[in-house]
Here is the input.
Amino acid sequence: MRHRLVLGSEEIPYLLRRSPRRRSIGLRIDPAGLTVSVPARLPQHEWERVLLKKSAWILARLDEMRSHATPPFIWQAGQMLPFLGSPIELAVEHGSTRIRPQLAEGVLRVLMPEPHDPGALGNRVLQWYRREAMAFFQHRVAVYARQLGVEVSRLCLSNARTRWGSCTSTGIIRLNWRLIKAPPPVIDYVVAHELAHRIEMNHSPAFWQTVSQLCPDYTELRAYLKTHSAHYHRF
Ligand SMILES: [Zn+2]
Here is the structure.
């Protein structure tokens, strides 16, 4: 169950676990955030009192976790980049930028002039990602549109910070290019989700029924995407 702890101007969401076997209050902080485990019948004000008492420790640990979770991303050779669910290594060689980046055996080779700045390297890699994303998504959208018997008027890539996809009533599908970092079944889930909106423009039980026909294990795939979201948004 989701709860919130208010500390001054900060609001900290936490997960509450009630357990019949617990005798004391347990606090755990991991990359997913704060989890509070309490005895089954403990009243809320009791654990809230403990959270307030430990607030300095909680805030410090959460800060530490955040700084570990997202070290600043630097475009340089040797970086491991997520692609279709596996890490690939970025290799930089001197050469003409007219030659496109090539992925072979888990290594993405990018030719760059010497010297170059990290931003220019980043732009070339992002361009490569977007091209790969478009080709992959086009194929998957075509497969699912045929299965559902729906039409897509246009497919575009989006760069949204929070959304993975969207679908308009006129059939324009937008998919976040960062999805190409995820394993293919996860991409398929998002594609199936957006295409199911061609039939149901809402998140009703009928909508989820359509999604589950295309994608029976969508619950796990959705959870996977949620837990990997910060990782996929590093660049
Ligand atoms: Zn939706």
